[in-house]
User: What shape does this take?
Amino acid sequence: MKYFLLFGLLLTGSFFSHGQELAVLKYDGGGDWYSNPTSLPNLISFCNEKLQTVLEPKPQTVEPGSTDIFQYPFVHMTGHGNVFFSEEDAANLRNYLFSGGFLHIDDNYGINEYIRRELKKVFPEKELTELPAEHPIFSTAFAFPKGLPKIHEHDGKRPQAFGLFENDRLMVLFTYETDLGNGWENQEVHNDPQEVRLKALQMGANIIKYVFQN
Assistant: This one.
């Protein structure tokens, strides 16, 4: 019970008046959870500058089965390969998300089939549903009238945003065939044009703002 209470207190605080830490999810299975090391710090910096947020500049690392996860209203997950949640991980993630937490999963190319399988352990009764372009997450700070921007081509498929909901609250966002995290990385990592990086950062800022306002 104390973890539910602690998390509720964190979420009722003002996002704009005090520092709040975000976290990267360290999961088992062999996938490279640590990929894109500069992406979340760059997104935090962008949000602090453009949205006047007061996010702590250095994100933390948290495991899905740890009670520490309840300290972070926003947890980011990425990678290319296999993902594995134990029964304890799945139960803890479920409690975290039902308590008001948010998980953003960004496919760095190759995580799709694994994360869909593992999310079924967390929410066997729920299905990922695609967010329409009219969803407010695409316009909360910057306008994306067509939905997710395409940052990296990969298989050339259209970018899609999928969500898991509880009573109309978006708990999990899975961004697929866009690779926002690559766009958040330092420019020299992928040599993306500045306009492409800006689109990725703006969409990331939309996600951050939407989560803390909803």
